[in-house]
Amino acid sequence: MTSAFTWINPDQRDFYLDAIDTALEKGMAAKEVACSITTGFRNVPSIRTAPGLNPYHASVADVGYGFDAVRGTILRLREGESISLAKNMLVFELDTLRISEKQLTPNFELAVKDAKPDVFYLIEQSRYLNSQIAEAIKEAISLGQAFLGPDWEIIRARIQNIQAIPRL
Fold first, then answer.
1. What is the chain's pLDDT, residue by residue, as a tens digit (168 residues)?
2. Which 3-state string (H, E, C) describes the chain?
């Protein structure tokens, strides 16, 4: 497969990559529904003009891009592509998802702050979906940390300056 993972048994490598992918697949399903509800929020007068709606929608989209990035890297590795910085890519992509996830709740709460009671059921459903997204990301990161062991923190320390670029 790739020289980045020669230290681990191929079956064990595949186990971790499959588990990370499965966790993100669950998160992606929740993200798709959250994105649909968020799009629907634009039709709700009490939410449409809320200051957090556009940043929340952007945060949901950012999480979706992150899911796609990690899953794309995993697919490339499964297909046998040799990626010299595969470990770095996994850490960067998973940790960037962590940063994106931290933006969901504050932006969401700002968007729904003055919502009317007739949309509370959508708000509660969205909160639930946001928690499912967060749970999936945390699970994937935990699996990534277990997979890469001490290399995770070494790589993460190196990439922090890159991640300091301002985000939405």
1. 445 676 678 788 889 999 999 999 999 999 999 988 988 888 888 888 888 888 898 899 999 999 999 999 999 888 877 777 888 899 999 999 999 999 999 999 999 998 999 999 999 999 999 999 999 999 999 999 999 999 999 999 988 877 655 544
2. CCHHHCCCCHHHHHHHHHHHHHHHHHHHHHHHHHHHHHHHHCCCHHHHCCCCHHHHHHHHHHHHHHHHHHHHHHHHHHCCCCCCCHHHHHHHHHHHHHHHHHHHHHHHHHHCCCCCHHHHHHHHHHHHHHHHHHHHHHHHHHHHHHHHCCHHHHHHHHHHHHHCCCCC
